[in-house]
Amino acid sequence: MRKIISFMHISLDGFVAGPKGEMDWIKVDEEIFDHVGKQISEGDTALYGRVTYQMMENYWPSAGNKPTASRHDIEHSKWYKNVHKVVLSKTMKDVGLTNTRIISDNLSDRINEIKQKAGNDILLFGSPTATHSLIQLNLIDGYWLFVNPIILGRGIPLFVDIKNKINLELMSALQFTCGVTELAYTVVRHLD
Q1: Position 182 in a domain
Q2: pLDDT by residue (tens digit) across 96-108?
Q3: Which of 31-40, 49-58, 74-83, 149-158 ranks highest by mean pLDDT?
Q4: Is residue 175 domain-resident?
Q5: Averaged over 30-46, what is the pLDDT?
Q6: Of 75, 137, 155, 171, which is most buried with the most CB atoms under 10 A?
Q7: CB of 120 within 8 A of CB of 82?
């Protein structure tokens, strides 16, 4: 069965964005871009909430074509165009969208159908609201957290309204030169 892996930048105190959705505190450089590019290059399905999808859709399809495009922009733009996209949204329609599926209801059933299909892991990028919903339904199988060396004090938390504890196993830890630390966890499921 395919797994859902959440990729998320996070502050040391657990926020994924500032109170108004600000992400200007996130540190990203070529070292992180190269690392993440290698991590996701085999991914064939990207999962987004509506807001994150619309941000990605407004930038990545043409980012690689700009005269000032970096190597990362070119590589990620190509990956983005080819990857199958799944968007969790109650308001969007999939009319005219290329290589994109909208899930608006029966979230658990629809996601489990996708997890049962052949393919590589499903990569969940950002999307705190979608992540919250998937956590509540126990559908996330791993977390790749990029812990930024900052304490925000307030903002949008990664973990909210957790009903039951979630046991994690640390798979790897990597510190980048800019001070960001990647912590890769897998969710440990206990058979009751």
Answers
A1: yes
A2: 788 899 999 999 9
A3: 149-158
A4: yes
A5: 89
A6: 155
A7: no
Summarize pLDDT for 124-177 with one digit per residue, the tens.
988 888 999 999 999 999 999 999 999 999 999 999 988 889 999 999 999 999
102 vs 9: CA distance, rounded Å = 24
| CA distances for 69 relative to 11, 32, 47, 58, 140, angstroms | 28, 17, 25, 15, 33
Q: To which H or E segment does residue 75 belong?
A: helix 71-82
pLDDT of residue 124: 94
DSSP calls for 30-70: HHHHHHHHHHHTT--EEEEEHHHHHHHHHHHHHHTTSTT--
Which one-letter amino acid corresponds to residue 118?
A: A
Tokens (6 digits) for 177: 């030169």
Number of domains in the chain: 1
Residue 192 lies in a domain: no
C-alpha radius of gyration, the chain, whole number: 16
In a domain, 64, yes or no: yes
Q: What is the CATH number of the domain that holds 127?
A: 3.40.430.10
CA–CA distance from 129 to each of 23, 69, 147 (Å)?
15, 30, 19
The residue range of the domain holding 155 is 4-187
